[in-house]
Design brief:
Oligomer: single chain
Radius of gyration: 38 Å
Shape: flat
Number of helices: 2
Number of strands: 2
Order of helices and strands: HEEH
Largest sheet: 2 strands, antiparallel
Strand content: 5-15%
Helix content: 10-25%
Length: 105
């Protein structure tokens, strides 16, 4: 006795996948053109018309002034060192630079 797992319609008894056959369908004639009639006004349509009477405020009213981007302008950081692989560390004084230079894995 053979046990079948999965779909029997896609696989044969010898467990090979069956080829799918193309089905030919007859073309239907297009439906006749019927012009669309306008729908009656609903509550949503009347509400939209009421909202158009009161325009929104402009985009510039009440907005905050533009903030300048922050940029480092001092001399506190003397450079950037790489400790291990791509780990970048800011160097603030000469002692840190020496320590980083002496470090090994």
């Amino acid at each position: 006795m053979t046990i079948f797992y999965g779909s029997i319609k896609n696989y044969s008894v010898s467990a090979r996948k069956k080829k799918k056959r193309k089905t030919v369908r007859a073309r239907k004639s297009p439906a006749p053109f019927i012009p669309m009639t306008p729908a009656p006004k609903t509550q949503v349509d009347t509400r939209i018309e009421q909202l158009k009477q009161y325009p929104s405020c402009s985009d510039t009213a009440g907005s905050a002034p533009r903030v300048e981007p922050q940029q480092y302008t001092g001399t506190y950081i003397k450079g950037i060192a790489t400790m291990h692989k791509s780990n970048a560390i800011p160097i603030t004084n000469d002692d840190q630079a020496r320590d980083v230079a002496r470090m090994r894995r």
